[in-house]
Write a structure and sequence with these properties.
Chain B is an alpha/beta fold. Chain B is built from 5 helices and 7 strands. Chain C has 7 helices and 18 strands. The chains are: A mainly alpha (618), B alpha/beta (186), C alpha+beta (374).
């Protein structure tokens, strides 16, 4: 825990600067590639990940994440005083004596001082101290601590090119070979080190010093502190040039520490330095030119890079298609309500077009993800939610386009809103485009098995919802035969398509398992989940076709498909066993239980009503 | 009944054919893994240096075919260990290989002392094709290669392009280095 | 017809082919599936599989219930009966083919469940292996290290009081006690009676409940050596003993050890190189790869075994399953599977696909006719 000591000492790095001007253009800076969590991403995504981790939001104090990162990198001393850390839990605040505050945001300086004063508490909570379970407040405290360390590491990543040294005394400056009162960087210091050492040696041999000598010793102390900076590795913005491990990018300090320096890296770092100077100067023109130059130089120095994908990701971050599509879905929902309340036909058209537009944006977002990640968009739970949402909304649109009865709209609006909303919750959890574990790292099987299964989920939800609607219609307007028949037909069609995809997906999954683990079927929970869907649909359809199930019972069963899907989609992750448990589980259990209870109540209620009515009729 | 029998036969034949195919195929030899050197196409920067004897050279116009630009320091233990092997490699190359041996020491006396000790160990420090340099203001090492640690070596080929840079002792006598050095003079 | 129905076999066939019977069987299968999946959480994949999935009958308290294997067999028979009893119409061809495909799938599953064998090969870099190690069965091995002879006694022969002997070894082994999963208990005082050796001096093996995870089980055996001269006496061995039990008898070094059952392969595999690739700048693995040389009695060739890309040869399939972390040499773990039913899922999917296509083509005129109705 060397770092604690340092944090107390690092506040004497005042960099010469004005406040950054508001009209800086960050677009080139935001698109500089950085390697993080195993992939190349634009600096914009990198900044968003970290800022969200620290503050819970992707922007702060009216600054974009990129602007915030620029400040953190180019002027750490200012960034240390910016209230970035979100500490909403009073228990955490009290544990380390942070003052209560309405917006519960604290600066790095505050947090690090508070942590420093409670070192023993923090140490006792760290995982090295044996395995013990922490309560939520303690976990948040540990998270705050690691966040603080990340913040510090980020802030020191570029110290290699920050002009942190300066000498006021003209005599000393001359002896060392630098200009007095003109700040200079670490590598300049290294070049003048022989002269500096010659100057300092006699001072060290004595006990007493004067002000001029103190200044010289301060430099030595500062160099010693920068030893810690040399370990910073998070900001991998330097493309590799040498050696066999040529797809690992390096952080500026790693280049020096690992002996990977080259004329190219020297010139790229000079560009970083220039960008920093321009940023601190507050001159928009200088910044815009320097940051654009920096971006170009990084791109030309890199070999396996897809500039268009970086651009696409930048666009993806900024446009936020999924939130937009959610807004449109909600709009379509409201318009549909207006239709239901007897509004004019204009509302119907509005609802239809909003749903279509929302689906288009939804599709665009997914298409961009495919392009950026260069793989099918179904590798994680979050992605499967997005994908299922699109399938369901599209099915709704197709049904509406064919029938024009409002049925498809209800369907699309409901599934779109709910699934996009759930998706939004998952999107906040770090990089949503993270790399996949080795066994999933195969485009062929992702594109076939996973896509098929995910389409099956979507179709099951559509079929289940149609069954709900059919039951509702049966209860509310039992005499409208034609409408009922139309719904029944769509429902049956959706169920058949769902079965087709579920079966295809399950068999393909078996073949994949056979290819990679040597067994077609291993009774893994996720496999069982998929099989359960297949069997359930088989049972329903065979029952329907053989006449064993009455239409009402068939509809009731089909309505329950939503529960079966929810269980096999989210539920199996709760078991935490087997090869497929890739999801986040916290909070799922409660929501899932609630969903199942509500569905059971609705379907049970509908079933009972219909049964009573039949009994009364008979 | 005929239809059923036919279906049965077709399925059995299909299964049998597939099984036969699967069991009797011989796997083909997989292609040999490609462990080729990652060639960096970059030209060397303009570097001129002065040897300890006071002679001035441009790196780009040295007469030898290949160059090892080697950074070392008197405080670096691996450097002391690797020098005999490195110098032998240069000698074995029959004048095709130059060694530009750059000390990044802060003080000249430290460096001189190191060389004296090297000589005392029986290493010929005055061999031909070896250029001893003291990088007093780090204008070769730090300015061009961000070198602050030692040893680091840059391999430069006949076209005066930088083929590779190695941080640490690469094992000069090893097979891999021999292969790389051979590629330099080709 | 009525005469035929009195035949009990025909009657049974008609019963199994009934739609409602099928429907109930399917419901029961789903119940089992849910119960089995839930129990995986508490008892582990292996036990759940044994209880629910690969069992004919399992016991719920004192009530015997049909397991998945039996239920699926029943459904399969039902399908066959249905296919055999029904009259085939050309109009149903697609559906019939689809169902034949499903039957093929189930039949393949049956073959796999009964005739496939699974094991693993642990190969350090540069070394060669020509046998497969079982994942769950163990044996007692006596290895004459002087003449490199290898004799194995399978675990089911190790009941207490059995005398094991072989013409290749000059001594006999009388088993005292064995355990599938052993606990090791240190004695307060060393044993003095019965001339104990090695581990048996200070420790005693006792049986503890089997762990649901197979690798956590440690099998062991306590035995007496006979006809071994001054080496006669009490011994104890268990799997992966830190100090192996080596007995020196008449100038021969005999290693006595518990190990996983080894089955010879008709070819050998040598590991040239194992490589784990990480995502750049992280510790997250991106790919695993073993470069091996297969040697089939002199014929040799190089092969790459990767995640999702196994090596198939002579009915065996070798998969990249794992690797040993922290081993002195890079060591790969390959899963080896020999499965007669392996191809059936492939054949079945093709048959089902053909069925769907036929069905679609037959339905196409109907679908097209319906369309203008909107």
């Amino acid at each position: 825990m060397r770092r604690f000591l340092l944090i107390a000492l690092l506040f004497f790095l005042p960099l010469p600067a004005q406040a950054a001007a508001a009209n800086f253009d960050y677009s080139s800076f935001a698109q500089i590639p950085v390697q993080h969590e195993g992939r190349l991403k634009p600096l914009d995504s990198f900044a968003r990940d970290f800022l969200t981790m620290f503050s819970g939001h992707a922007s702060i104090d009216g600054m974009s994440a990129t602007a915030w990162l620029a400040e953190l990198l180019f002027q750490p001393d200012a960034a240390y005083d910016r209230a970035v850390f979100n500490v909403p839990n009073p228990a955490v605040q009290h544990a380390i004596d942070l003052p209560e505050r309405e917006n519960h945001r604290y600066s790095f300086a505050e947090v690090s001082k508070a942590m420093d004063a409670h070192q023993e508490l923090i140490h006792s909570l760290l995982p090295e101290q044996g395995m013990h379970t922490l309560d939520p407040a303690q976990e948040q405290l540990v998270a705050l601590y690691t966040n603080m360390l990340w913040y510090f590491e980020l802030s020191r990543s570029l110290s290699l090119v920050l002009p942190v040294f300066s000498i006021h005394d003209a005599g000393s400056a001359k002896a060392i070979g630098v200009a007095a009162d003109k700040p200079f960087t670490w590598d300049e210091m290294m070049r003048h080190r022989p002269a500096y050492l010659k100057l300092v040696k006699p001072i060290l041999d004595r006990k007493t010093t004067n002000a001029r000598e103190d200044e010289l010793l301060q430099i030595g102390l500062l160099m010693q502190h920068m030893e810690v900076d040399k370990e910073t590795r998070v900001l991998r913005v330097m493309p590799p040039l040498w050696g066999n491990d040529s797809d690992t990018w390096l952080s500026p300090w790693a280049v020096v520490q690992e002996g990977q320096g080259s004329p190219q890296s020297v010139s790229l770092l000079a560009a970083w330095r220039k960008a920093g100077e321009a940023w601190r100067s507050g001159d928009p023109m200088a910044w815009n030119t320097a940051s654009a130059e920096l971006a170009t130089q990084t791109m030309t120095g890199a070999q396996d890079i897809r500039p268009a994908a970086l651009k696409a990701e930048y666009l993806y971050n900024r446009a936020d298609f999924f939130t937009l599509s959610l807004v449109l879905y909600v709009g379509a929902f409201l318009a549909l309500l207006a239709v239901g309340a007897g509004g004019p036909v204009m509302f119907y058209r509005a609802s239809f077009s909003m749903l279509t537009l929302g689906a288009a944006l939804h599709f665009l977002g997914l298409a961009l993800r495919i392009y950026i990640m260069d793989r099918p968009p179904v590798g994680t739970l979050y992605e499967s939610i997005l994908f299922v949402g699109l399938i369901a909304v599209t099915s709704g649109l197709i049904i509406e386009w064919k029938t024009r009865q409002g049925l498809g709209l209800v369907l699309g609006v409901l599934t779109g809103t709910v699934l996009q909303f759930i998706g939004l919750k998952y999107a906040g959890e770090g990089d949503s485009m993270g790399m996949l574990v080795a066994v999933l790292n195969t485009n062929f099987w992702l594109a076939t098995h996973v896509v098929a299964i995910t389409i099956a989920y979507g179709c099951c939800i559509v079929a289940g919802l149609l069954a709900h609607l059919w039951l509702l219609q049966k209860v509310a307007t039992p005499d409208e035969r034609l409408r009922l028949e139309l719904t029944a037909k769509s429902m049956l069609g959706a169920a058949l398509v769902a079965l087709l995809f579920a079966m295809t997906g399950t068999i393909l999954g078996g073949i994949w398992a056979d290819q990679s683990w040597g067994r077609f079927w291993g009774w893994d929970p996720k496999e069982n989940g998929a099989l359960l869907i297949v069997l359930w649909l088989l049972w329903l359809l065979h029952g329907r076709l053989s006449g064993l199930l009455t239409p009402v019972r068939f509809a009731l069963g089909l309505a329950l498909t939503t529960v079966v899907v929810a269980l096999s989609w989210f539920g199996v992750n709760l078991l935490g066993v087997g090869l497929h448990s890739y999801g986040f589980t916290t909070g799922i259990a409660l929501n899932l239980g609630l969903f199942v209870a509500v569905e059971a109540a609705i379907i049970g209620g509908l079933g009972l009503t219909l049964r009573q009515r039949e009994g009364a009729a008979a | 009944m005929k239809a059923k029998l036919l279906a049965l036969i077709v399925i059995i034949v299909a299964c049998g054919a597939a099984a036969t195919y699967d069991l009797w195929q011989t796997p083909a030899n997989a292609p040999a893994s490609d462990n080729a050197l990652v060639a960096s196409p970059h030209k060397i920067p303009a570097i001129n240096f002065t040897t300890l004897e006071g002679k001035n050279y441009f790196l780009s116009t040295l007469p030898e075919k290949g160059i090892i630009l080697h950074f070392w320091a008197s405080w670096c233990a691996p450097c002391a260990l690797e020098f005999p092997l490195l110098l032998r490699k240069v000698a074995e190359a029959n004048g095709n290989l130059a060694l530009v041996s750059v000390s990044i020491d802060d003080s000249r006396p430290n460096m001189d002392e190191f060389l004296v000790r090297l000589k005392a160990r029986g290493v010929r420090t005055d061999a031909p094709h070896v250029y001893w340099v003291w990088d007093r203001d780090k204008s070769i090492s730090l300015k061009n290669f961000q070198t602050v640690r030692a040893p680091e070596s840059v391999l430069i080929n006949r076209q005066r392009r930088m083929i590779d840079k190695i941080a640490g002792d690469p094992g000069w006598a090893g097979q891999e280095m021999s292969r790389k050095l051979l590629a330099l003079v080709r | 017809m009525t005469e035929k129905q009195q035949n009990p076999a025909t009657k049974a066939a008609h019963f199994m082919a009934r739609a409602d019977v099928f429907s109930w069987a399917l419901l029961w299968l789903m119940t089992l599936l849910v119960a089995g999946t839930l129990s995986e959480k508490s008892t582990g994949l292996y036990m759940a599989q044994k209880t629910y999935f690969s069992s004919g009958i399992f016991w719920l308290g004192i009530v015997p219930l049909p397991g998945v294997m039996l239920t699926v067999t029943f459904i399969f028979m039902g399908m066959i009966c249905k296919l055999a009893l029904d009259k085939w119409h050309w109009s149903d061809l697609g559906t019939i083919v689809m169902h034949i495909g499903a039957a093929v799938l189930l039949f393949g599953g049956f073959l796999t469940a009964h005739f496939s064998s699974e094991g693993s090969m642990v190969i350090p870099q540069g070394e060669s292996r020509a046998y497969v190690e079982s994942n769950d069965e163990v044996e007692l091995a006596v290895i004459d290290q002087t003449e490199s002879k290898d004799i194995a006694f399978s675990f089911d022969k190790l009941k207490a009081g059995t005398i094991l002997s072989n013409s290749a070894i000059p001594f006999a082994i009388e088993t005292v006690s064995w355990c599938r999963n052993c606990g090791l208990e240190r004695l307060k005082q060393p044993v003095t009676e019965g001339n104990p050796h090695g581990v048996a001096i200070n420790f005693v093996l006792h049986s503890i409940p089997r762990d649901p995870v197979d690798e956590n089980n440690r099998s062991g055996l306590t035995f007496r050596l006979k006809n071994a001269g001054d080496k006669d006496g009490l011994y104890a061995v268990f799997e992966d003993m830190p100090i192996p039990e080596i007995v020196d008898i008449k100038g021969h070094q005999y290693l006595i050890a518990m190990r996983n059952v080894r089955t010879p392969l008709p070819f050998s595999v040598r590991l040239i190189h194992f490589k784990q690739t990480l995502y750049p700048g992280t510790n997250k693995p991106k790919a695993y790869e073993s470069e091996v040389v297969v040697d089939d009695h002199g014929a040799q060739w190089r092969s790459l075994i990767r995640m999702n890309e196994p090596l198939r040869y002579k009915g065996y399939t070798l998969y990249q399953a794992s690797y040993l972390e922290g081993a002195p040499q890079a060591t790969t773990v390959l899963a080896v599977v020999r499965n007669i039913g392996r191809l059936f899922p492939y054949i079945a999917s093709i048959v089902i696909c053909i069925g769907m296509l036929i069905h679609l083509f037959q339905r196409l005129p109907v679908i097209l006719r319906e369309r203008p109705k909107a």
